[in-house]
Amino acid sequence: MSKKLHIKTYGCQMNVYDSARMADVLAPLGFIATETPDDADMIILNTCHIRERAAEKVYSELGRLRRLKAERPAGRGRLILAVAGCVAQAEGAEILARAPYVDMVFGPQAYHHLPEMVARASRAGGAQLDTEFPSEPKFDHLPETARVDGAAAFLTVQEGCDKFCTFCVVPYTRGAEYSRPAAAVLAEARRLVAAGAREITLLGQNVNSYHGQAPDGGEWGLGRLIRAAAEIAGLDRIRYTTSYPADVTDELIAAHAEVPALMPFLHLPVQSGSDRILAAMNRRHDAAAFRRLVERLRAARPDLGLSSDFIVGFPGETEADFEETLGLVRDVGFAQAYSFMYSPRPGTPAAAMKDQVPETVKEERLAALQDLLNAQQLDFNRGCVGRVLPVLFDRPGKHAGQLLGRSPYMQPVHAEVPSAFSGAIVDLRIEAGYANSLAGVPIAVGAAA
């Protein structure tokens, strides 16, 4: 008999990918996806530890699910409740101590063990805990399936991090850097395209540190992998995220210049414009190196749009340090960006640093930075007015007769086009640029790629 599976996904695109693969792993056991937890036989919270108070948000959600589990009718059998992902990896046994009604806790490197854990939880009872970093790559044990929701898909090619930025928990929750063999990545990409994907985003904690085994036994970097992926018939668009500035290679820059399928948009986290703060963060670049890298990328692809990450209020950040961040933003110019107030993560070196910045100061600096970044994003969007951009439509718009898609620069674009255009790439003349989106009209109604 079929059973219903509900997965709630927090955080990054890699978690979205992992949730889809968890569903693939559980499908042979009879689990089918459901959108609501109320009728589920198994609920998985796939968690993220990057944001502030991430663990407490998970415990709050577990409190709500505890009532759902307790009120479950006897005739429906047992509800299995699981916590996965980075909070599970970081908290481990603490989750079982604080929420003893949870049946399974497992980290992001262990979900290929799900069938065994479900069997033990169902038959023997008792909580299952798996937060080890296994010696064998999980990808070797996942089913060769492809799950596509719309025309765009995610594909993890690299996991883990060896950089140990002082503010970040990823090395402790995702483990050491690991790159999948190129042949396995390309095989999965072909399956995704066969299932309907026209755009694939290659994922990794530091995706451009990719160094996977080549089909001939050598080693490929990300640039070479992108060139091979671009040869897959039907794969029209390629993206990658998240990048580490110090790992951008000549080969990758050349790919931006020479591979038409590689979209002209790059997320390149800089975190700060102050060399003193970058050193305290243990970043392996300074502000001048970041500026030079941007110049090289834009020389290779003049229409490149950049996105970045910024942390304000890192321990010891002075007003002068913050002004250097604003100066870098003004010099570089960003199409999009994400900015956050520093918040300590237990176990990271920065959490124990002196000179923690007061919350009120962090709030003021974040507001100033976001005002500048939002103005740059609006300018970039307005600068697209009058241009013809290819838009991949992948979902209904807010209004009847409208579809929503993505431009090459990741901007949401809405247009009044036939519903048959869903999944198609359509050339639109952009007529309006807003703070967070664009509007356009097809230059040839009825023609879609």
Summarize the structure.
This protein is α/β, with parallel strands linked by helices and about 450 residues long.
Provide an overview of this structure:
There is one protein chain. The protein has helices spanning 13-26, 54-70, 85-91, 93-98, 114-123, 170-173, 182-194, 222-229, 250-258, 275-280, 287-300, 319-332, 359-383; strands at 3-9, 31-33, 42-47, 80-84, 104-106, 128-130, 152-156, 158-159, 178-179, 199-203, 211-213, 219-221, 237-241, 265-267, 305-307, 309-312, 338-341, 388-396, 402-406, 412-416, 425-433, 438-442. The strands form 7 sheets. Strands 2-1-3-4-5-6 form a 6-stranded parallel beta sheet, with helices on both faces. It has a 5-stranded mixed barrel with strand order 18-19-20-22-21. Strands 7-10-13 form a 3-stranded parallel beta sheet. The protein has 3 domains: 3-130, Rossmann fold, CATH 3.40.50.12160; 138-383, pyruvate-formate lyase- activating enzyme (Alpha-Beta Horseshoe); 388-442, OB fold (Dihydrolipoamide Acetyltransferase, E2P). The protein is globular, with a radius of gyration of 23 Å. The mean pLDDT is 91. Helix 8 (222-229) packs parallel to helix 9 and helix 12 (319-332) packs parallel to helix 13. With 449 residues, the chain is α/β, with parallel strands linked by helices.
